[in-house]
Amino acid sequence: MTAPADTKDLARQERADLADLLATLTPEQWDAPTLCTQWRVRDVAAHVFSYDVLSTGALIRRFLTGRLNGDRVNALGVAAYAGSSTDELLALAKQHLQPRGLPAGFGGRIALTDGLIHHQDVRRALGIPREIPANRLRCALQFAPTAPPIKAGKRIRGLRLASTDLGWTTGSGPVVEGPAEALLMALAGRPAALPELSGPGVQTLAMRMVS
Question: Where are the domains of the chain?
Answer without folding.
Answer: 7-126, 151-210
